[in-house]
Amino acid sequence: MKTKTLFIILSFTYSFISYAQKTLDTEIILTSNDTLRTKIRIYATVIDNGFFNNELNFYKSVRILDGDGNKHKIDADFIKQMKFVDLNGKKRTFVQNSGKLAELKYNGKITWLRESYQYNYSKINTDYLKNELGEEVKMGEFNSYRNKLKQITKSKPELKSLIEETTMNDAGILLILEKYEGN
Description:
This protein has 183 residues and is α+β, with helices and mostly antiparallel strands.
Protein backbone atom coordinates (compact mmCIF):
# COMPACT_ATOMS: atom_id res chain seq x y z
CA MET A 1 0.00 0.00 0.00
CA LYS A 2 2.83 2.41 0.81
CA THR A 3 4.45 1.78 -2.58
CA LYS A 4 1.22 2.52 -4.42
CA THR A 5 0.68 5.76 -2.46
CA LEU A 6 4.26 6.84 -3.04
CA PHE A 7 3.91 6.10 -6.76
CA ILE A 8 0.73 8.21 -6.99
CA ILE A 9 2.34 11.11 -5.13
CA LEU A 10 5.48 11.00 -7.28
CA SER A 11 3.44 10.76 -10.50
CA PHE A 12 1.31 13.73 -9.50
CA THR A 13 4.36 15.78 -8.50
CA TYR A 14 6.20 14.97 -11.72
CA SER A 15 3.24 15.88 -13.91
CA PHE A 16 2.71 19.12 -11.99
CA ILE A 17 6.37 20.15 -12.21
CA SER A 18 7.01 18.99 -15.76
CA TYR A 19 3.92 20.49 -17.41
CA ALA A 20 3.23 24.10 -16.61
CA GLN A 21 2.02 27.30 -18.20
CA LYS A 22 4.68 29.87 -18.99
CA THR A 23 4.58 33.32 -20.54
CA LEU A 24 6.79 34.83 -23.24
CA ASP A 25 7.16 38.45 -24.32
CA THR A 26 5.92 38.73 -27.88
CA GLU A 27 5.10 41.15 -30.65
CA ILE A 28 1.91 40.45 -32.58
CA ILE A 29 1.02 42.28 -35.78
CA LEU A 30 -2.68 41.97 -36.48
CA THR A 31 -4.23 41.82 -39.95
CA SER A 32 -5.39 45.40 -39.30
CA ASN A 33 -1.65 46.29 -39.00
CA ASP A 34 -2.04 47.17 -35.31
CA THR A 35 0.92 45.98 -33.22
CA LEU A 36 0.55 44.40 -29.79
CA ARG A 37 3.48 44.02 -27.42
CA THR A 38 2.22 41.55 -24.89
CA LYS A 39 2.83 38.18 -23.28
CA ILE A 40 1.64 34.90 -24.74
CA ARG A 41 0.74 31.90 -22.64
CA ILE A 42 2.29 28.59 -23.61
CA TYR A 43 2.40 25.14 -22.13
CA ALA A 44 5.93 24.01 -21.37
CA THR A 45 7.54 20.88 -19.96
CA VAL A 46 10.95 20.07 -18.56
CA ILE A 47 11.45 17.87 -21.62
CA ASP A 48 13.55 19.51 -24.35
CA ASN A 49 14.85 22.28 -22.07
CA GLY A 50 11.41 23.56 -21.15
CA PHE A 51 9.81 24.08 -24.54
CA PHE A 52 8.04 21.03 -25.92
CA ASN A 53 5.39 21.01 -28.67
CA ASN A 54 5.28 24.80 -28.49
CA GLU A 55 3.77 25.22 -31.95
CA LEU A 56 0.65 23.41 -30.80
CA ASN A 57 0.04 26.23 -28.30
CA PHE A 58 -1.03 28.56 -31.10
CA TYR A 59 -2.05 26.55 -34.13
CA LYS A 60 -5.47 28.23 -34.42
CA SER A 61 -5.39 30.84 -31.66
CA VAL A 62 -3.05 32.59 -29.23
CA ARG A 63 -3.65 33.11 -25.52
CA ILE A 64 -2.32 36.47 -24.36
CA LEU A 65 -2.14 38.37 -21.10
CA ASP A 66 -2.78 42.11 -21.09
CA GLY A 67 -0.98 44.59 -18.84
CA ASP A 68 -3.42 43.89 -15.99
CA GLY A 69 -2.92 40.13 -16.18
CA ASN A 70 -6.30 39.51 -17.84
CA LYS A 71 -6.43 36.56 -20.24
CA HIS A 72 -7.57 36.98 -23.84
CA LYS A 73 -7.65 34.78 -26.91
CA ILE A 74 -6.87 35.96 -30.44
CA ASP A 75 -7.86 33.73 -33.34
CA ALA A 76 -5.13 33.06 -35.90
CA ASP A 77 -7.37 34.65 -38.58
CA PHE A 78 -6.63 38.06 -37.04
CA ILE A 79 -2.86 37.61 -36.71
CA LYS A 80 -0.56 38.60 -39.56
CA GLN A 81 2.72 37.89 -37.75
CA MET A 82 3.96 36.96 -34.30
CA LYS A 83 7.56 37.18 -33.06
CA PHE A 84 9.13 36.07 -29.79
CA VAL A 85 12.20 34.47 -28.25
CA ASP A 86 11.39 30.98 -26.95
CA LEU A 87 12.51 29.47 -23.64
CA ASN A 88 15.65 28.12 -25.35
CA GLY A 89 16.66 31.61 -26.53
CA LYS A 90 15.74 30.99 -30.18
CA LYS A 91 14.05 33.80 -32.17
CA ARG A 92 10.80 32.51 -33.68
CA THR A 93 8.45 34.09 -36.22
CA PHE A 94 4.97 32.79 -37.03
CA VAL A 95 2.78 34.03 -39.87
CA GLN A 96 -0.78 33.37 -40.92
CA ASN A 97 -1.13 30.59 -43.45
CA SER A 98 -4.73 29.92 -44.52
CA GLY A 99 -6.22 30.82 -41.15
CA LYS A 100 -3.58 28.99 -39.11
CA LEU A 101 -0.23 30.10 -37.72
CA ALA A 102 2.82 28.57 -39.34
CA GLU A 103 6.45 29.07 -38.35
CA LEU A 104 8.52 31.03 -40.84
CA LYS A 105 11.64 28.87 -41.11
CA TYR A 106 13.28 30.72 -44.03
CA ASN A 107 12.39 33.78 -46.07
CA GLY A 108 14.29 34.36 -49.32
CA LYS A 109 13.71 33.48 -52.97
CA ILE A 110 12.02 30.45 -51.48
CA THR A 111 9.82 30.88 -48.41
CA TRP A 112 9.69 27.92 -46.01
CA LEU A 113 6.75 27.62 -43.62
CA ARG A 114 6.11 24.87 -41.09
CA GLU A 115 2.60 24.20 -39.88
CA SER A 116 2.18 21.94 -36.84
CA TYR A 117 -0.98 20.27 -35.63
CA GLN A 118 -1.97 17.43 -33.35
CA TYR A 119 -3.33 14.11 -34.56
CA ASN A 120 -4.00 11.20 -32.18
CA TYR A 121 -1.75 12.71 -29.46
CA SER A 122 1.13 13.15 -31.92
CA LYS A 123 2.55 16.36 -33.34
CA ILE A 124 2.48 16.38 -37.15
CA ASN A 125 4.49 18.88 -39.21
CA THR A 126 3.67 19.95 -42.74
CA ASP A 127 6.21 22.11 -44.56
CA TYR A 128 5.36 24.50 -47.40
CA LEU A 129 7.93 25.86 -49.85
CA LYS A 130 7.04 28.69 -52.22
CA ASN A 131 9.52 30.02 -54.78
CA GLU A 132 9.82 33.46 -56.38
CA LEU A 133 7.63 32.31 -59.30
CA GLY A 134 4.74 31.59 -56.95
CA GLU A 135 5.07 27.81 -57.29
CA GLU A 136 4.33 25.98 -54.03
CA VAL A 137 4.99 22.47 -52.81
CA LYS A 138 3.72 20.78 -49.69
CA MET A 139 6.06 18.42 -47.82
CA GLY A 140 4.70 16.15 -45.15
CA GLU A 141 4.73 12.70 -43.64
CA PHE A 142 3.82 10.83 -46.83
CA ASN A 143 5.91 12.38 -49.58
CA SER A 144 9.56 12.69 -50.49
CA TYR A 145 11.26 15.84 -49.26
CA ARG A 146 14.00 15.27 -51.84
CA ASN A 147 11.56 15.13 -54.76
CA LYS A 148 9.71 18.22 -53.54
CA LEU A 149 12.98 20.15 -53.11
CA LYS A 150 14.05 19.16 -56.64
CA GLN A 151 10.68 20.35 -57.92
CA ILE A 152 10.80 23.76 -56.21
CA THR A 153 14.48 24.36 -57.14
CA LYS A 154 14.20 23.12 -60.75
CA SER A 155 15.49 26.47 -62.07
CA LYS A 156 18.88 25.56 -60.56
CA PRO A 157 19.61 21.98 -61.73
CA GLU A 158 23.10 22.14 -60.19
CA LEU A 159 21.43 21.62 -56.79
CA LYS A 160 20.17 18.10 -57.66
CA SER A 161 23.33 16.33 -56.47
CA LEU A 162 23.39 18.38 -53.24
CA ILE A 163 19.74 17.48 -52.60
CA GLU A 164 20.56 13.77 -53.11
CA GLU A 165 23.53 13.89 -50.72
CA THR A 166 22.01 16.04 -47.97
CA THR A 167 20.27 14.62 -44.91
CA MET A 168 16.65 15.72 -44.97
CA ASN A 169 16.40 17.51 -41.64
CA ASP A 170 15.95 21.22 -40.88
CA ALA A 171 19.67 21.98 -41.21
CA GLY A 172 19.88 20.13 -44.54
CA ILE A 173 16.84 21.86 -46.00
CA LEU A 174 18.18 25.23 -44.83
CA LEU A 175 21.53 24.51 -46.51
CA ILE A 176 19.79 23.78 -49.82
CA LEU A 177 17.65 26.91 -49.61
CA GLU A 178 20.72 29.05 -48.87
CA LYS A 179 22.55 27.53 -51.87
CA TYR A 180 19.51 28.29 -54.03
CA GLU A 181 19.74 31.86 -52.79
CA GLY A 182 23.35 32.00 -53.92
CA ASN A 183 24.96 32.05 -50.43
